[in-house]
């Protein structure tokens, strides 16, 4: 039986694909899970207590959180920056409850881009709301010009901590470039997290929890995983861990 991977769905506005509001998951995420041998199941966003979230996730073998728009800054005690966009507190609270529940029950979890930011906030961390405002020794482009835009993400090198879950996931592959599409990043780490990868400007590109297989990436491996084995290996390792812990 294929490992069942819960994908935290997202609320979307009605449009060309539907005359009513939709719940959705991005195709690249689903495809990466399928290539890894998992069966993705999209969870419809709703108001959940942490207890409710734990009961739902108890039926699954892993949890995947996608990228997307910005987390409500009120969740980490800040006012919104002028460039903060797309905030929907319903999505934020739904995904945060899933993160806390997954950590509590030891469910293998992979959190991508916004998913990493939600996870950090869910455990009391904070975010840099707009990287262009952060003083660093030199700037690294973390998103395309005019972000947010319909353009693809930009590539930049990263450094990964030896011995980390991420290093083990790559299983001997060279460290791939980060495919970045974001203007925010982790500032203060949430409780239980350790930074395990960094960009050249010292912004955190990955973090992990010490109490299970819980890996968060600021970049998008699924964007190029269809033709880059190193990026696909991250999804492979996630699904392998889900299968191992289930069996």
Automatic annotation (TrEMBL):
CDD domains: GATase1_2. One of its GO terms (molecular function) is gamma-glutamyl-gamma-aminobutyrate hydrolase activity. One of its GO terms (cellular component) is cytosol. It holds the Pfam family Peptidase_C26. One of its GO terms (biological process) is polyamine catabolic process. This is Unannotated protein.
